[in-house]
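Supplementary Methods, section 5.1.

A reviewer requested that the exact input to the structure prediction be made available. We therefore reproduce it here, unchanged from the version used in the analyses.
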Amino acid sequence: MVFACAALTSAPAPADAALVFGNTVERSGEPSRRLAARLDAARRLHAAKQVRYVLVSGGLGKEGFDEADVMAQWLRVRGVPDSALIVDSQGVDTRATCINARRLLAARGAKSVNVVTQWFHVPRAQLAARRAGLDVRGAAWPHFCEPRDAYSFARELVGYPVYALRP
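The structure derived from this sequence is encoded token-by-token as follows.
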């Protein structure tokens, strides 16, 4: 069952980059529906000239695929040029993604981002990005939800305060 849902965070605003957090790649090598929805949200930001770059970040998934490479390929096929893509294959978690993004964007003279992830992950992703020194302008999230999001939302209700209290 898939249904539309809303997020309780700031809408996207003009920024240097869309920072897309990785997620599951199917055994076929294709992004999961959840990940494809994130990528489409970032693609739309780029097409609307809200961002110059799309930074995709992920690690090596249990299925054996580099999430970031799969994400970049998905975007290329849909018209995002290589000159706009930044690939981070070391984004193994939210914190690493944000730390890596700061370094990769700084190398291009960029610093501001819209985080792109699922609605329930946006607050923690924005917190991590700010802590990494990124200028967070807003967020984009796909209008995609699935039953497993109830678990993920509950996890974030506990995880966000724990994360916020970490030094």
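The first strand starts at residue 15 and ends at 21. These observations are discussed further in the main text.
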